[in-house]
Amino acid sequence: MSGRDPAEPFAPSPPPPGVDASAEAEAELVRAAQRGDALALASLVDRLAPFVGRICGPIALEHGEDAAQEALIALLRDLPSLREPRALHGWARRIAAREAVRHARAARREAARGTDAVAAALPAPGDPALASDVRRVLGALGAEQRAILVLRDLEGLSEQEAATLLEVELGTVKSRLSRARAAFRRRWSS
After folding, report:
1. Domain spans, the chain
2. What separation, in Å, do the N-terminal and C-terminal C-alpha atoms of the chain show?
3. pLDDT tens digit string along 51-96?
4. What is the DSSP string of 98-112?
């Protein structure tokens, strides 16, 4: 029992001195959601949805929204198994990337069977023509190549972090990244 009246809105306890208040507040939010607090769970979804969408969109392209939705469902379903609440974003990033790659592969298989090719949907501010060109080039790359480009170049993960997230060897990440960047440059200049 939490000792908190369930009718009262969620309010995290203050962190101890020297602890990042926002990280501790989010960890407490996770713990409350794990205990079944519906308001905490709704707040967590509101925080995670844009983060998950930024990962899924560039990888799964036109299927990014579906991938993000599936990733959020997986996050909510598996939230009770998250042992370290402060690891929420790394855990969410891993699930979102896997789900986005799964959707991108399924779309590629569907396209190979004769349906329409992937059109791409990378939201980008600025010049619409440039955004269209980037979407076109990303759409021509494989899901694994898009995933490594998004994780390294958009999310700013290190090669080791990307290897851990994608559950592949560091050398695999380095070679995929090299091939993905070369493929992007080739397609960009053509």
Report:
1. 21-189
2. 63
3. 999 999 988 888 999 999 999 999 999 999 999 999 999 999 999 9
4. HHHHHHHHHHHHHHH
